[in-house]
Each structure stands twice: as structure tokens, then as C-alpha cells.
Amino acid sequence: MSELFDAVDALLASRAALPPPAERKRLRAAHGLTIDEVAGALKVRRATVSGWESGKTEPRPPERDAYARLLDKLAELYPAAPVPAAEGGPAPDVLVPATFTGTVPAPTRPTGPTETRPLSTGPATEAAGMTAPENTQTPAPAPIPAAASRPSPATRSTPTSRRPGARKAAAAGTPAGGTDPRFENGPLAVVDVEDGKVLAYGVGGLVLDVPAKSLPSLVEWTLAEAKLGQPKLSGPGRPADPLLVLTKAALERYGLPVTLTAQERDAGRIPEDHKVIKQLTRADWKLTKRGFGPWARIYRPAKGSERQCVQLCIPSWNALDPRFWGDAAQLPPAELARVLGTFATRVMTPRGSTAVTGLELMTALHPPTHAVRDEETGALRQADTKTPGSLGSDPVDCAPPEAPDGHPVLNALDLPRFHVRGPSEKLFEEAYDWARPMTDAECTLRFLVGLDVNMAFGAGANGLTVGLGEPTHVMNPVFDPKLPGSWLVDLSHVDLSQVKVGKEWVDLEGSLLPSPFTPKGDRPTGPAWYATPTVAYAQELGYDVRPTEAYVRYDNGRYLDGWYTRLRDAYLATMADLGVTTDLSPEDFLTAMDGYKDRDPELGIVITAIKATIKGGIGKLRERPRGEGWRPGERWRALERPTWRPDIRAAVISRTRINLHRKIVKHAAFTGQYPIAVLSDCVVYAANGPSPLDVVPYRDGKPLPGGFKLGVNPGLVKHEGTQTVLWGEEVREKFDAPDLNLARSIKDGTVSTADNGE
């Protein structure tokens, strides 16, 4: 009989009564528990508990009985509050979630790892060779919201007024936009249609009911009632415009195509005679010159300091490039809101592609103009002069050697037709793409180990002095390592077989090292144009430099410091949420990095987007013509931006390449090991073992000063991949290329000629 009773008990437990999903979340939050703590107690994955709280999945035995027991105990401590009785009527029996206000205090607990984790800034990078400056202008990124999901209609609270306002799912948390009441609902929302109702999903589980029947009314509602946007990132700046992400269902609801035709994709917009654009025009809304494309901006001319502008992001029109946003475009609305909201909160509200956003972040941190008080009227107005430390509002022409081919500044040089400029006429500051054959001794080793520099180009930007204004042409200048510019100088006399490392001369196998002065690693053969960091490194190695010509910028500053700090903080905070922190030992770091993106794929997307924002933002400083009927010698659209600055791009790339070469030289002097290949920020060594610890030297737990160090901070290195020496030799033999760059394929062994961006 006892067996029958046990079976009955098990049957009852399999159907243990559970409260609604939103109430489950409220009870957990009321007791100060994190999703990870609950998951750990029940021995399930974090995503499993998140699914139970969102209603996407239901627990099964044996976890269901334990979960029900937990919720029952919490419900005793934090009972739901009854709905207030309507005036003149009886109190209803329905209970709604409420914060407990009784006599049992919630216990004090440490903050959870993914809900209210404080920002990890970490130490300054060794690559930059200095302490990161304190950033007093940039607000710290907000804690990442827990994984959100679509709440069931039953969990949405009933409005208390006739105005459709911010209707939060139960226990959605504090307002995502911080203390500014204008943006209390966060920086953005994903607009979707469910069961015939238009809903806007925000960060932290926020859901807004959208009453708009047309796109013009959606824009009006966003500006008047949605309370979306983001506070300004610097004192003289301006708040970010609200961003609406339209799903396919929302596109259909508002009369827009779900996908673009081939012709529309090429044009980057829908036709100007589209019915929705006509609706906007009739309602006095305007579009920017980019038209109605994947990142459309809809606005009315500003009146005073009040802006009226809403940006749209349309994933199905390829707004979220999968190279930089992974599968974000395929995520459900709540999950997409979490990804974009986390990025917006920690970096900035996306303004277009990751490259565009990287450039816009520079401007947001250093606005070109600022408001001043009119002495007569007392009113604020925008100043005519540029903000100190900014690039100003007017574009600046580059120097001739800094100009890419086809730039109009070259017209004055009267170059022969089809002339190809060489190093003595053109600045070639690019990332490394160098490789060499393996020596006989290296062929006896078993493995090839790839090391990758974290946020290499961001670290290269940190503390870098760049020009802010126009270049000044100087003949026979005395080189000044603190003066940004482009210098014509002969560095062919620098011999890597004997260089200074610190204050001591050391002898090296120079033929096994790439030259620090050329992207291909070849030794210069005569005068060439270089950015300041490259020439300064020649001096550091112990050699005299005597430029014959230069374009220098006396108006200069550390323009990119705040930009780097903002992106570094976003990167480190997100990596910490993925379990990779700045305080790990080398062994623990390698373990934590193993499959780190799989722990939370949505945060993995955010990491990829942050890194793409860094690389893309630097690349965008020298944007080339994009069709538009351009012909060589004519101006193109990007030249009208103050942020079109190829000299700044060259300086960052120069410093990044030099930072890596400095580590390579110190490593060679200390260990006798030389790189097999270098590609951008990845370097490959032959080693006896497959681990980076078989390459990176540690003595008494301490790395070589100034050399490679394992860690998550920008400028430190992580494991890029390991292959066998036999694999490397077979690949080179197969392609009959003894100098094939194995760094390009070290990650997964797949031979490709394309840079994977890592």
C-alpha cells in the first residue's frame, strides 16, 4: 500500500500548484534572490529558471516540487496585496503582485551577478603603458537587466488613467533610464504585434501598450508618452533620441515592406513615393538625406532646445549586420530588447551600424559646440566656436600624404594619370599582415599557439595625443614624440638585430622579426611617411631620426580617452557578467574564457558588437566613397564630417602596431622565442605545448614586465587557438606558400584569406 501512496504523492507533486510567472519573479526579487542562486539551489541552468519566470516553459518533476516549495515559503513572507476596492463596491478577490510592507524584513544579500553587478573597470592596460585617466564625464553603465521574455497578457497591469503609459510587467525593476523622468522607460523599445495588439518591449521586462494606428502617430506617441531616450553622455552634449525597433509584424501593421527588394537594398531605402513616406510628409515629419532605410531618422526641425526626433531600426532590412550582431535579428522581441538595451545602456543608443555608432560615440563625448548664456536676454544659445577638446563643427582637409587615392587635395599635386603613390608620397599606417617560414628548430616543436590582444585598437587609442585642428607644413623639423602629425623620415637604418629594450642594448635574431615600420613587416628601403608613434618607436629602439618634412598639428589633445574608457567599461562589465573577471589567475582566466559566450548567448552578441564598434569607429575615420556617382578628384559625402580624420585613424593603427611589436621584442629578448605570423592583433608562436602558458612566461606567478600577459583587460592577451606544427607545414605546402599567414587560420584550422575581425 505504501508504494501506492508514494505513487500518489509523486503524481500530486508532478502537478504542484505554481503561481503565475510574473508572481514567481516578484517573490524571488522580494527576497533578494538572483536567478543564478535559484538555479544553483535547484541544480538547473540559469536559462531554465528564466524560462519559468517568463512563462515560456514550466518546471517538471523533480524540480517542480522543490520550486513550488520555495515559492510557497516566499509567498508566506511576501504575500500579494489585494486589489483596492472600487469606490462604493466590494473588494475583488483578485490579488496583484506588490512589494511586501509587513513586519518581516527582507534579508540583506550580496548583489546578484547579472542583475545589479557594479561596473568592473579594471586596471589600465599594459599596452597603453599608462594609467587610464579618470573619466568624470561619462556615467557608469547601468547594471544589465536580467533575461527578459514576453509576459502573458494576464500579467500586464491595468492602466490607472486613460493615457496609455508605461505598463511594466510585474517586478520589472527600476526604470532603465536612470533618474531622469524623461527617459524612465529606457533608451529603446522593440515594437511587435501580438494577438492583434501593438506592444513595445523595453529593457528589464518593460512592456508598453502602443495605441498608434499609423507610423506618424507612432512617432507622436513615442515623443509624447513613451518616455524613451537616454541622458547625454557629456556636459555640453544632448540626450539620445528614442530608438524604435520594428519587427516584421510591426512593419506589416504600419504598412511597410517586411523585406526590401534588390533595388531597394542597393539604394539603401524605400522609394520616396511610398505611401508611408507620404503619410509622414502630410503630418509634417521629415526624413534625413539617407531617406527611409534600415536606420531611418524621422524628425521635425528643433524649436529652441527641444528636439523632435525618433530613430527606427528595422532588423529585417539588415539593420543588424550578422557579422557584428550575430543572430540578433532573429531573436524574439523581449530578448532583442535586452541585447540592444544592454548595448545602449553601456555604450550608447545605436545610431546605425556599429561603425557609425563608434563614430557617433566620439561626437557624443566631445560635442562640437556648447551652449552659452546670452548676456542680454539670459537665454541659452549654441556657441559659434568649438568646444575645447572637440573636433569642432567644420571639416578639416587632411595633409596630402594622409589623403587616400582620389581625394581632391591631391589635385594640386598634378600627379601623372594612373600614378601609384609609394611610401615616400603616401602614409601607409595599417595593421600587421606578416608571416615567415619556420626554422628547423621550430619544426621540431609540436604546436602553434595563437595569442590575441584584447581590444587592441581601443588600447592603442588610450592616452594617445591626436590632432584636433588643421595640419601645419614644416620642412626639416626636429622630431617631437609628443607632437601628433605625419613625418617623412628614413628609418631603413634601424637594425632589429641590435636594439634597446628598456635602457639596455640586446642582440636579437632580426631576420625572425617583422619590421615595426611597415604593415607587411618588410624593412624600409628609404624615406617614407610615418605617424608620430612609429617614429617615436624608432627612437625608443635606440636610433636617431631626422625627418626632412612633416605635417604637424599644434592644436591637439587626448580626444579618444573618454571614448576608450566608455567602451572598455562596457566590455569589462559584460565580460564579468559572462564569468570572466579582471581578478582571475592565468589558469582560471583560460578556463573562464572556454565557451564564455555560450553561457549567455545574448550577452555574447553584445561583446561582439562592442568590439565591432571599436574597430568600425576607427575605420570610419577614413571612410571611402560609397557609390553616389563619385569620380576621382571629387569630394564625397564623408569629407563633410568633422570626424573624417585619416590622420587620427593612422595614429591609432600606428600605436596599436607598435604596442604589439614592443611586446614581441621583449618576449624575444627574454625567452628567445620569435613569432611565426602576425595578423592585426593576433600573433602565433611555435611551442612544445598547446596552451598559451607554454608561450607566455610567468615567474613566481608574475608575467614578463611589458610583455604578454593573460587576462581580460584591454591590451592583455587571450588564447586565439592552437594547431599542430604539422598542420601548418601541410597547409603551406598545399598552397605552395611558405609565407602563408597562419594567424588567419589558427582559430579553427580553416584556411581563409579573410580577416575574421578577431
From TrEMBL:
The UniProt record lists the keyword Chaperone: no
Record's keyword annotation contains DNA-binding: yes
Entry keywords, A to Z: DNA-binding, Transcription, Transcription regulation
UniProt-listed SUPFAM superfamilies: lambda repressor-like DNA-binding domains
Chain residue ranges for the region called Disordered: 94-185, 370-393
Domain of life assignment: Bacteria
CDD domains: HTH_XRE
Cited InterPro entries: Cro/C1-type_HTH (IPR001387), HTH-type_reg/antitoxin (IPR052359), Lambda_DNA-bd_dom_sf (IPR010982)
Protein name: Transcriptional regulator
Source organism of the structure: Streptomyces rubiginosohelvolus
Organism lineage string: Bacteria, Bacillati, Actinomycetota, Actinomycetes, Kitasatosporales
